[in-house]
Amino acid sequence: MAALKSGLGVQAVLTALVALLLLAAPGLPSPPLYVSLAGFAMAGILLASNTLSAYLKIFVSVYGIGYLLLALAKTLAALGALPAMVAALLPPDFAATGSVVFAAIVLAISYWKPIRDITLIADPYFASHDKPSREIGMFRRFGRTEGQIGRNLVALSIFVNFADVAITLGFNFYYRDMYNSLQALDAQAFWNQVVWTFIPLAVLNVAIGMFDLYVDSGLQLRWRTWLTHSLYERWLGDGTHYRIPFTDEHADNPDQRIQSDVNAFIAQTTTLSTRLLSQAAQLVSFIVILWTLSRDFVLPFTDTVIPGFLVWLVIAYAVVGTWLTHIIGKPLIGLDYRQEQVEADFRFALARNRIYSEQIALLRGERAEASRLTTLFHAIVDNYVGIIFRRIKLIAFTFSYRQASTIFPLIIAAPSFFAKKITLGALQQTANAFSNVQGSLNFFINSYTILAAYKANTIRLGSFKRAMTKAEALAGAGYGLAQGNDTAGSVTARGLTLALPDGREIVRAEELTLPKGAATLLTGPSGSGKSTLFRAIAGIWPFGKGRIDVPAGQSALVLPQRPYIPLGSLRGAVAYPNTVDRFSDEEIREALRAAQLPQFADRLDEVDTWDRRLSGGEQQRLALARAILAKPDWLFLDEATAALDEETEAGIYRTLRESLPGTTIVSIGHRSTLNRHHDQRVEMKPAEGGRFEPRLSAMPAPAE
Ligand SMILES: Nc1ncnc2c1ncn2[C@@H]1O[C@H](COP(=O)(O)OP(=O)(O)OP(=O)(O)O)[C@@H](O)[C@H]1O
Fold it and tell me: 527 in ligand 1 pocket by Cβ < 6 Å?
């Protein structure tokens, strides 16, 4: 029942009604019985497609509409309700049945795993209820939601592609009539053909070509915008990007997946789906023409009649051609996948050189870097050479294939022509139909290289999405960071164990409290898990068990030893992670002065690579300016002042405590001079099993 209420359900009922009507229509010559029977099949397919992917549904629905239009138009023509000129333009009866066959093919392939992998990536866009993206003007009013715009555009694109097939068919008949007029030396008929058939077809062909490009580009742009946004939003969401390396999913170079794989995937999906289907329609149409032309084909130099000989020939051609292409082209899938990966590795290494150029220059690391780049580039060359040779083999085959098929139909049909059994027009039509069939097959065969890259892309995007799902699941796993607290707003850990990704336990805390309002200093040997404890409190460390409670609704800021400084203006760097409009210029300047960076107070608009321009100590003070601006309830300083001299450090701590009276400070540090800025000390003590245990310890008396 639910299936009947959906859009496809309504369409199915309508189709069944039309089929019934055709069946009951008294003694019409057209459409024949099989068209009405096909209508019932179409209704069944439409119902069965209700559970189909959102993307494939569009195709089935368009074919359903195609069937209705064609069957009704044929009925109207048979009833004499259409002008003769329009009726003459209608495609033959089998076209309506053809659309049912295509719908059945779409339904059948939807169960095939490679198609399911593709629709898994494609569907979220077409099912999306988001408001139309304002970024792109093209087709913005073509639907109420972004998903609906996408669906409408795909449907439009399918119609446009079918219109193109209809024009190609028109040309085929034009060739027959034009060559017949030449053979009959009928000048009047020839000029009539040129003016009334060729010119309108040519004009339509150009117009449809332009419109097709516009629709396709609009769809690709809108889809890419939506998918790119949704991928990076999800990737950046809730520490997912940080946890992906902890999953067992191989998701290297996410930047490449978001920037280039998405783009390629969308271009390939639209090209392969709409064009592949229109090529299939073209293939079927011309096969029917070939059948009509060679219905009583007499094998040259014999008397044997083989009905539809040219069709059998072309099918044999297709089967052998596709099979050989598959054998020759298969290794390209793996090679293309690897190429994407090695290219991304090389690009990433270059980007790292740019980021760490100062360290590399100081260490005189250029030779080591060059040799690493050489190795990485070698992998690109090596793999590409493999691709070149594989493509050459493929081209040797596809070119021979194309050449053979231009002469083939002429050789086969010429004896009939010379025996005056067929006209010049029919000979030309045969050659043209054969070359169109060949063109469609060529599309499938040439698509092989695209298919190989497509598969690689689908795998890369699929594994990226799986990695994100696993990383998101990791956030909820482990000890489960509970929000809310009943111990006067303190941070507490109970029965907590923190482990490494390999399961090795590094920290054990039976009971630990970081009281609200009292500055705590966390000390201990290097590698004892101090930073990991901070990560766990911040909720990004997924391995371990037990419980950490953080006060509900309170803000926290963690400052690491090496602060992250985003690209852009100094204002943006100080305001980070808040947006620049959160604070006035005076507030930002004041924070810079408080963090002992007065010399930068008037350079807020300067855009620079600040992470390389500022000294290590200046970067740390910039991060402290952030804390002064953000006024968090909790401030975690992970050796965040280690690059400062003791005097500046002391000044900064004084400022922090004065300007952030409501903030609880928790610091990690090794220097004894930090003691006097804190109220209590927690020390990481070695415990059994190589683990460390945070224990409250006495604050050493200040040095004299
Ligand atoms: N992502 C990770 N994968 C595997 N091991 C990790 C990871 N992060 C940290 N570790 C390991 O966990 C242990 C504790 O690291 P952590 O950074 O917490 O120590 P720390 O006490 O802060 O050290 P330091 O005082 O040197 O900064 C180290 O042995 C480190 O190698």
Answer: yes
Model confidence at 479: pLDDT above 80: no
pLDDT band at 444 (very low <50, low <70, confident <90, very high): low
243 C-beta closer than 6 A to ligand 1: no
Both structure tokens of 260: 């280039």
DSSP classification of residue 44: H
The Å distance, Cα 502 to ligand 1 centre, comes to 13
Q: Is 269 in the pocket of ligand 1 (CB under 6 A)?
A: no
Q: How confident is the model at residue 704 (pLDDT cuts 50, 70, 90)?
A: very low
The DSSP output letter for 631 is -
**In this model, does residue 3 exceed pLDDT 60?**
no
Q: Partners of 523 in the beta sheet? A: 683
Query: Which residue, judged by its Cα, is nearest atom 5 of ligand 1?
Result: 500
* Alpha helices in 184-300, H assignment, sequence order: 187-193, 199-236, 240-243, 254-256, 262-270, 276-293
Mean pLDDT across 309-315: 81
Rounded distance from Cα 368 to ligand 1 centre (Å): 27
CB 142 within 8 A of CB 386: no
Rounded alpha-carbon distances, angstroms, from residue 317 to 290, 311, 365: 14, 10, 59
Block residue for tokens 């139309």 = 132
- Residue pair 267/220 in contact (Cβ under 8 Å)? The answer is yes
What single-letter amino acid sits at 617? G
* Tokens describing residue 284: 């079927």
Residue among 241, 474, 500 to mutate when testing ligand 1 (max atoms within 8 A of CB):
500
Contact, 628 vs 591, CB < 8 A? yes
| CA-closest residue to ligand 1 atom 16 | 529
Does the CB atom of residue 370 touch ligand 1 within 6 A? Answer: no
Indicate if the alpha-carbon torsion angle 247, 250, 252, 256 is positive or negative: negative
Residue 487: the pLDDT is 55
Q: How far is the CA of 526 from the centre of ligand 1 (A)?
A: 8
Residue of the CA atom closest to atom 17 of ligand 1: 531
Q: pLDDT (tens digit, 9 = 90+) per residue, 182-197?
A: 999 999 999 999 999 9
